[in-house]
Request: fold
Amino acid sequence: MNVTPNSALDHLTRMVQVIADDPDLRRWFMALSRKSIVERRNEIYAASDRMRAERKDADLVSCIGLLADPRVFEAASAALQEYDRNGD
Reply:
């Protein structure tokens, strides 16, 4: 994944849209918010590994992996809340 500030924002936006529109991913993401940082990181890495093994979209897998960083996770949480508020 080629990451520039603009592309990182685009990937985060895309990831939030995917999470918002997929009930299973949304449940998973919401469950992550109730876990400790270490538990969340471990679960995110495991999910990324499974997705990679299943040959899912490489950019999406990379974005999911980025959620292991607490700052990225918080940004995604805030973006999902904004997405919900705006009804996008």
